[in-house]
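User: structure tokens for this one?
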Amino acid sequence: MLETLKTPGDTKWFTHDRFGLFIHWGLYSMPARHEWVRHHEKIPTEVYDNKYFKHFDPDLYDPNIWAQAASHAGMKYFVITTKHHEGFCLWDTKVGNYKATKTPAGRDLLHPMVDAFRNQNMRVGFYHSLIDWHHDQYIIDSCNGPYREAANRAEMNKNRSQAKYVEYLHKQTRELLTEFGKVDILWYDFSFPRPDGSGKGRDDWQSEKLYKLVRKLQPHIILDDRLDLPEGWDIKTPEQFQPREWVRVNGTPVVWEACQTMSGSWGYHRDEQSWRSTENLIQTLIDCVSKGGNLLLNVGPTSRGEFDYRAMDRLKGIGNWMHHHSRAIYGCTQAPPEFKTPQDCRLTYNPEKKRLYVHMLSWPYAHLFLDGKAYGERVEYAQLLHDGSEVGLGLSDWHAGQAGVTAQESLTINLPQLRPNVTIPVIELFLK
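Assistant:
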């Protein structure tokens, strides 16, 4: 098992649990055409607020249903957008009025969500946007937001003070880390400094000061890598991208988590047709764990406060697979290098239990060949994981002659002709 870079946060539970739920929810669920709708369509503040802030009323919101769906899917933690780039806050923040309690919703939406997920024994994570397209002191830059290309942008910035916005940002961080009990993850998003001096980075957020505040209030919290600081973060967060191998920084393996959507958007997008299949999402989870990483899989709830039918369908399908195969995920990591990955497969490994899991992305006829001496020397028993049924080991002399292999070169799994009725079959190997 690879040793990862030592960081201040407590990642031991994180690298065991492997699978979490990302939730992107805000006013952008009402236009239902991407969480960056204000940016893409350059919607002015007064138009956005008169349409969406004025009418936001998630009357069907029941966070217990969300938490139950996530728990059934095998997720062990969640991360919720307390505030996304649009600036809208889900809780009753004391330092601003752009919040759920001032909409027709009329209530704090974050506290009951935290309680619901904790009741399902899931850990709590907060996403908080560094960017804020609504705050009247946030300096409008040329990189993102509805006014990025406005001819009067310089004039609009005349009476703005980024320092005053930073004070607001830090005060909200203090609220989130003192009013909700133990918070396990803090997910800031995002810094965008550019070589020409445009964009925003550590100085614009006073990241060093913000970092010290976070560590003081919640010393063991897991912090992401988007404050534009070279050190202090606990996890690397490849987004909408699947790494080819264990993520490294300066050659050293690090704790990492891929964050990905079920479709193309993070927020609810009614008309999106690019939804990934349940099988593809399970493959992605397996692939992450096989490279020593986690998967944070996103759902964008509707403006009425529900997970839409497509999201619920995927969560149910993943949960059905995890019901039988979660022990090939929890507590698992990349396999030792002496175990070569068979064709069309992924390997995960539980170092504590000394079990190796072969995730079969395709189903070959009759035999699966596990090449290399390590298999022959260390495997003492094999079974299909979904039902615990034994699979035979080794080839007959006649088959071995045809295959051109020896027991020293390869261990052969004898497969049933009928592919198991599970999304992705897994063979569990007990090692000596």
